[in-house]
Amino acid sequence: MLKLKTWHRGMLFISNFRSHLKFIRILSHPQTRQLIVNKPELTYKYLRDYISLNIPARNGLFILISHYSYLQSNFKINFLDDIYQSPIQLWGMDIDGVSFQIVMDFPHMVDHEGDLCLIFKKDLVCIYRVIFVITKGSSFDFPDDHVIFISSVQGMHGFEGIQQATRICHDVQPAQMLMAAMSGVGLALGFNTIVGIAGKDQICRCEKLFFSYEKFFEKYGDIVPHKNFYRISLPYAESALDLIHARHRKRTQKKRTFKNEIRDQVISSMAQYIARDSEWQGKL
Predict the structure, then answer these.
(1) Closest Cα partner for 214 from 237, 227, 196?
(2) I want to staple 117 with a disulfide (CB 3.0 to 4.6 A). Which of 47, 70, 131, 211 is the partner?
(3) CA–CA distance from 36 to each of 24, 46, 78, 93, 102 (Å)?
């Protein structure tokens, strides 16, 4: 089986050789040169499952090229070096004596699921993360110049920490806070669309603690017919408050205000890393 896999990956490499050389040239840029010194396997990771069980190697390589080309064109030159060495904080707040943060990081241990991630922390302990990649809309047959593809939504430190964080943060779950932050990232970059993976295509599904990608993403967008992913428009659509029972209206408004504050702080924090003027203001 090992020989068969090696032979198969060798054939994939040969058939995508020109695109592979293009990818090498992109990674030789000063912004990414140190990254491939630290992670030389990055140049070949499209030869195995990358971001989805349903994306061929050729498309995976195209997505990698799109991602790193975009970062080079739109982020400051030291962005990837900084984020590889240490996470950058996009949001932070102390509530009832507990410190919460959302940081952007490189997904060191699970980089086959994507090339950037947002991590929610409670008192510096990693509680939840969302892994993603930036690619051209054509990767998913969308007209957008670029979209964010979310490939993983995972708890990281047990269910008790998630429960505690949810209770303290106005009953907003860490995954929902990360989606608010992801909205901020997308809006700061001027994007219109986030794409969410369907559960059956997720690479590292945890059988022990089941997470329904379908139930999660359908709160934000719609399944694309005949495809295994969800299309989520930015900013996220919210139900009108008058459609919510009067008894829950005040609580719902408080939760929305909290998530909007996260989104807005992330937009503000992103400005220091983006190398061009942001375009998000016209969307809100």
Answers:
(1) 196
(2) 131
(3) 9, 14, 14, 34, 26
- The neighbouring-strand residues paired with 274 are 75
pLDDT in tens, 223-250: 998 888 999 999 998 877 766 767 767 8
Q: Are strands 193-197 and 146-155 parallel, antiparallel or unpaired?
A: parallel
What confidence category does residue 106 fall into, taking pLDDT thresholds of 50, 70 and 90? very high
pLDDT at 208 over 60: no
SS in 3 state form for the chain? CHHHHHHHHHHHHHHCHHHHHHHHHHHCCCCCHHHHHHCHHHHHHHHCCECECCCCHHHHHHHHHHHHHHHHHHECCCHHHHHHHCCEEEEEEEECCEEEEEEEECCCCCHHHCCEEEEEEECCEEEEEEEEEEEEHHHHCCCCCEEEEEEEEEECCCHHHHHHHHHHCCCCCHHHHHHHHHHHHHHHCCCCEEEEECHHHCCCCCCCCCCCHHHHHCCCCEECCCCCEEEEECCCCCCCHHHCCHHHHHHHHHHHHHHHHHHHHHHHHHCCCECCCCCHHHHC
284 pLDDT band (50/70/90 cuts)? Answer: very low
Number of domains observed in the structure of the chain? 1
pLDDT over 80 (residue 205): no
Measured CA to CA in angstroms, residue 127 lies from 121, 166, 197 at distances of 5, 11, 21
What's the domain range around 259? 2-283
